[in-house]
Specification:
Elements: H1 3-13, E1 22-29, E2 40-48, E3 66-68, E4 74-80, E5 84-91, E6 95-96, E7 98-103, E8 110-113, E9 115-116, E10 125-131, E11 142-150, E12 153-155, E13 166-167, E14 173-177, E15 184-190, E16 197-202, E17 208-211, E18 216-224, E19 227-228, E20 233-238, E21 249-253, E22 259-265, E23 270-274, E24 284-285, E25 288-291, E26 298-307, E27 310-315, E28 329-334, E29 341-344, E30 350-356, E31 361-365, E32 371-372, E33 380-383, E34 389-392, E35 396-397
Parallel strand pairs: 1-8, 10-17, 18-26, 27-34
Antiparallel strand pairs: 1-4, 2-3, 2-5, 5-7, 6-9, 10-14, 11-12, 11-13, 11-15, 15-16, 18-19, 18-22, 20-21, 20-23, 23-25, 24-26, 27-30, 28-29, 28-31, 31-33, 32-35
């Protein structure tokens, strides 16, 4: 990451809290509640206790603070900002790393419990280490399966016998078990302060060294009638969301100047950037498509203007004698983003979405035992781009 940029962001977005700083103390224990020795505790990420964050979770000045546990498993992380809550990571040799999430330093000491590393058949274990651009170990990187190789095919999602996640320890090392029927594994690496990446074709018994790189940065302003909008949620999601290359979804907030600065994005990757529908009162922000620059480069995304959203409404028509099930939901989604909204359908079959995008949309509703007339294979209801649409009348029939 551009270290000078991060230093500037911290200076811009965080107030000096030296006089009000507080310490976080705690203990690291094993499953038997006995102290764990030779461990380290790290401030991994932070977030404000109230509102949305104008900084990336790892960009706060307290992130990266660490302390070695003593012979009694105790640690102290000093001079933390009391307006923040923290995700705290503990690692120790022979144990699986573990997080204490949403820790408030004002609430007193915390206890982090570690589980011993399980001994697994080496034939099923994918191992390796994550290092930074200087070759140093990256602690707390999340390494998760991206795709499993089964012969000449790939498997994705929840696969029996596949570990869901590994977190790198103090040496940057990770381990993931794969099913007996699998031969290789692609992994997704998400690490604090560096760009996400996918490394492919890891093989059991052949430890892989994965080098992460600095990410790219995108900034912009959210404005309404020429005035900055504070606290707007800005979401980044890859335009190409194929399972084999998906790097995840990230979100940030705007500050009092309406400014957001999203760091650690994948370089030269195309993102859809949007403010979720319904998150701003009486207005929407139409999404933009942005391609990031090279590693350590910053892209100015310009201004996102808040405009009037439109209304999408209508009623469902069911066969005679069929009642609408209680708590039936109807889902609305744009064609180009992952910005999904849903509302309850009223008992009379009517529904209303307010403050939604003017782009092309899709509606989806499922009613057990019925099918949508002329719904095709997806059973989606197309909503054209433009202004209000208040006369939708999806018709259902018995199969």
């Amino acid at each position: 990451m551009n270290r000078r940029l991060i230093a500037l962001l911290v200076a811009l977005f965080t107030a000096s809290a030296a006089s009000a700083a507080t310490n976080l103390t705690g203990t690291v224990v094993g499953p038997d509640a006995k102290p764990v020795r030779d461990g380290h505790v790290y401030v991994y990420t932070a977030a404000p206790k109230m509102g949305v964050s104008p900084l990336c979770p790892s960009c706060y000045r307290d992130c990266g603070k660490q302390d070695a546990v003593d012979g009694k498993g105790r640690f102290a992380l000093n001079a933390l900002d009391p307006s923040l809550k923290f995700n705290v990571l503990a690692v120790a040799p022979g144990y699986e790393p573990a997080f204490a999430s949403n820790v408030d330093p004002l609430l007193g000491p915390v206890t982090i419990r570690l589980a011993p590393r399980a001994k697994a058949d080496a034939k099923r274990l994918i191992t390796g280490s994550v290092i930074d651009p200087d070759g140093k170990p990256v602690v707390g990187a999340m390494v998760e399966p991206s795709g499993v190789h089964v012969g000449d095919r790939y498997g994705y999602g929840n696969i029996p016998g596949l570990d869901k996640l590994s977190i790198t320890d103090a040496k940057g090392e990770f381990a993931l078990r794969i099913p007996e029927f699998a031969s290789q594994l692609d992994v997704r690496v998400l690490s604090r302060s560096f760009a996400p990446l996918i490394d492919r074709n890891l093989v059991p018994g052949q430890p892989r060294k994965i080098r992460v790189a600095d990410g790219s940065t995108v900034s912009g302003h959210v404005m309404r009638d020429g005035r900055p909008v504070e606290g707007a949620r800005v979401v980044f999601v890859q335009r190409n969301r194929n399972s084999s290359g998906y790097l995840g979804r990230v979100e940030i907030g705007t500050n009092e100047q309406g400014l957001f600065v999203m760091t650690n994005l994948a370089p030269k990757e195309t993102y859809l950037v949007y403010v979720p529908m319904g998150s701003l009162p009486a207005g929407i922000v139409e999404p933009k498509t942005i391609t990031t620059g090279a590693a350590d480069e910053s892209t100015d995304g310009g201004e996102w203007s808040v405009t009037r959203g439109r209304r999408i409404a209508g009623a469902l028509f069911l066969p005679e004698g069929v009642s609408l099930p209680e708590k039936t939901h109807i889902i609305l989604a744009p064609d180009d983003t992952a910005d999904v909204r849903d509302v309850l359908v009223h008992p009379d079959g009517s529904f209303v979405f307010d403050n939604v995008s003017t782009g092309a949309l899709r509606l989806h509703v499922r009613i057990p035992g019925l099918k949508l007339v002329d719904g095709g294979e997806t059973e989606d209801i197309a909503v054209p781009a433009g202004g209000d649409v208040t006369n939708l009348g999806p018709v259902f029939e018995r199969p």
